[in-house]
Amino acid sequence: MRPFTYERPNDSRGAVVAIGRAGTGAKFISGGTNLLDLMKLEIERPTHLVDISRLPLNAIESLPSGELRIGAQVSNSALAADGIVRSRYPVLAQALVAGASGQLRNKASVGGNLLQRTRCPYFYETSSRCNKREPGSGCDAIGGFNRGHAILGASDACIATNPSDMAVALAVLDARVVLLDHADVVREVPVDDFFVLPGSAPHIETVIRPAEMITAVVLPPQPAGRQLYRKVRDRASYEFALVSVAAILETRGGTIRSARVAFGGVAPKPWRAFEVERALIGQPASMATFQTAAGVAVANAVGRGMNDFKIELAKRTLVRTLANLMAE
Amino acid sequence: MSDTPEPVEAPTANDPSDVAVVPGADRPPTVAVRFKVNGREHHIGLDIRTTVLDALREHLRLTGTKKGCDHGQCGACTILVNGRRINSCLTLAIMHEGDDITTIEGLGTPGALHPMQRAFIECDGFQCGYCTPGQVCSAVAMLDEVRAGWPSHATKDVASTDIALSDAEIRERMSGNICRCAAYPNIVAAIRDVASREH
To answer: Of A169, A174, A187, nearest to A95 (Cα)?
Structure first.
């Protein structure tokens, strides 16, 4: 690990001022479960750390608007255990407990989970080429061992997937990310817009600006319908998704009134599938409808060889998830 | 990181806020860290990069906590910080100023074993023993999480806070602790034993 300097400001304002003052090379550290892992391998090489883990951003508050405001420093465990999250947003609690291990969830923060790197084994293997680690060097995952890689939204520069389960649930819940900058300007960005596709610059993964900090995530009021997160992976536990689906389905008299779907494990960002939703809404809640929607989901999917199976797996996982929601 | 720096003066204030560290000209910054380990206050001087795991093992000579992967994947380094289990390899000592840390040495001693340690012996819950301190710390904190009603991936209804501690629940909740000897059936039995005695 490279040496660095360190400071621990008292409040959010102090944190964004500190990061602005420190300039290029400075990073926030929160739970540290992804950043320190990468610092040990010298893939991340911050010269200065601003410790935000003790900022007073650890509350989960019900707002008069019916929304839920989740502080950026709430741990993944605390969020999954929260009574309101479990009763009104079960898809989020299910996604959280499907990710990582008990130890990691205790340490990892909500803000840090959103800012964990989109990554693949070639990003970790420093002897291989990786456009994310070293822009312009190439991508050894293309044509390499790419069983776990993206089938949607990837580019010829990068086919890594975003591993967050939490972010998939946040995408389907229309959550907003609250950002604060050093000039005290607050802006809110929908989760779907927070993450960007790799294109020719895969080292850029979100729209967060250098001097901005995530202070909270806001969930809109509980959506109508039933919610479910389903994760398919090589091991039963403590493993990234091959494919996951977060879905919210509202039906009346056998007809789908509203539907929301997001995929995990298949794209460089949590993949909100608006076109799938359009294919479901107004249709009979039947297996035939679900099969049609599944076809829509993967219409633009591109396999890279070893991950071709994910195209069929994504379809089946969506159909099964929607069928499970109808059976509840 | 093998040499042990001389202990340095502890910070005078108890308030951990507004700490700032500036590098020396020729060597990595050394910082003073104060935390409680197994009920005892420690003030130590550390290379700023030192993880809690290395602080425990290399500086406080508490070698019960084991280093396996050093990347948060195996769970051998599991300790309790303020009562919650974490991977001590994936966190910096400087970030734990003022925290209350419990390691395997603090849970029990050869003469006064923790009930979970005794259950691991009675159920033959280990072979080589390298992962065992992490397994025991993780299991103790995991049962606290169950008592607090935290859900897991094995919980049928995440809204329910009354967790029935099935073997599936134990396995899921312990999945952050790897045992290369594969003593899993007996680890599950040991945890089940302790949990059932508490009821």
So the answer is: A169
* DSSP SS3 for A294: helix
Other CB atoms within a 10 A radius of the CB of residue B88 amount to: 30
Determine the distance in angstroms separating the CA of A113 from the nearest CA of chain B, rounded to an integer. Answer: 15
Judged by CB atoms within 8 Å, which residues 21-50 of B form the interface with A?
Answer: 21-23, 28-29, 31, 48-49
Q: How far is the CA of B185 from the CAs of A319, B131, B176, in angstroms?
A: 35, 15, 16
Superfamily, domain B115-198? [2Fe-2S]-binding domain (1.10.150.120)
Amino acid at A64: P
- Which A residues in the span 264-293 are in contact with B, Cβ-Cβ below 8 Å? none
**pLDDT score, position B22:** 54
User: What CATH number is given for A226-327 in this structure?
Assistant: 3.30.390.50
Q: What is the DSSP string of A81-144?
A: H-HHHHHH-HHHHHHHHTSS-HHHHHH-BHHHHHHSPPB-HHHH-TTS-BTTTSTTS-BSSTTS
Q: Quote the tokens at residue B78.
A: 């599991």
**Class at the top of the CATH hierarchy for domain B30-107:** alpha beta
Tell me, yes or no, if B168 comes closer than 8 A to chain A by beta carbon.
no
Q: Which of A101, A227, A230 to mutate to test the interface with B (most CBs of B within 10 A)?
A: A101
Among A303, A271, A300, A314, which residue's Cα sits nearest to residue A147? A303
Q: Are A5 and B29 in contact (CB < 8 Å)?
A: yes
Architecture per CATH, domain A5-51, reads as 2-Layer Sandwich (3.30)
Residue B72, C-beta contacts closer than 8 angstroms, at least 6 positions apart: A33, A37, A103, A104, B87, B89, B90
Distance from CA of A310 to the nearest CA of B (A): 23
Could you report the per-residue pLDDT of A252-282, keeping only the tens digit for each? 999 999 999 999 999 999 999 999 999 999 9
Higher pLDDT, B26 or A294: A294
Residues 92-121, chain A: which have Cβ within 8 Å of B?
93-94, 97-98, 100-104, 106-107
Q: Residue A85: closest CA among chain B residues belongs to which residue?
A: B159
- All CATH 3.30.43.10 domain ranges in chain A, comma separated: 5-51
The tens digit of pLDDT for each residue in B67-124 reads: 999 999 999 999 999 999 999 999 999 999 999 999 999 999 999 999 999 999 999 9
Per the CB < 8 A criterion, the answer to whether A180 and A12 are in contact is yes
What's the mean pLDDT when you consider all of chain A? 98
CA distance B16 to A9: 9
Q: Do A4 and B85 touch (CB under 8 A)?
A: no
